[in-house]
Amino acid sequence: MNDYRYIRKPPRYGKIQPSDTVLVHGDHRRWLEDQLTKPFAGKTVVVTHHCPHPELLSDMPSEFDPIYGSDLRTLITKHNPDAWLFGHTHRQREAVEGDTIVRNVSLGYPSEVEAGQEAELLMRGMIDV
């Protein structure tokens, strides 16, 4: 992955390693779970960059799937947010996990989005909650 060639980390600005991203993922997951345990009046919507549901990653599972998402279905069903929106995969897909709608809100790469398509997707409910 290009990320491991270009992203640097302090203190000596060496290249990041997969073990670094595993640590960041664990830290961010703990933060998110802590936030989801706090009482909240109203709808709970989680927005992440990576996909939280392995069935929404690709048509055919591959060894590269962990680059684009994680299996957070246990966290989703435990905390049951109203919606979980994500991007990164550029694939307009959705699923329901428990009572939670899990939806990719990516429009796709610029070359894949026709002029005016954003408004059409909004009207069809593809990119709103």
UniProtKB/TrEMBL annotation:
Domain Calcineurin-like phosphoesterase positions: 16-91
Any one GO MF annotation of this record: hydrolase activity
InterPro entries tied to this protein: Calcineurin-like_PHP, Metallo-depent_PP-like
Name assigned to this protein: Icc-related predicted phosphoesterase
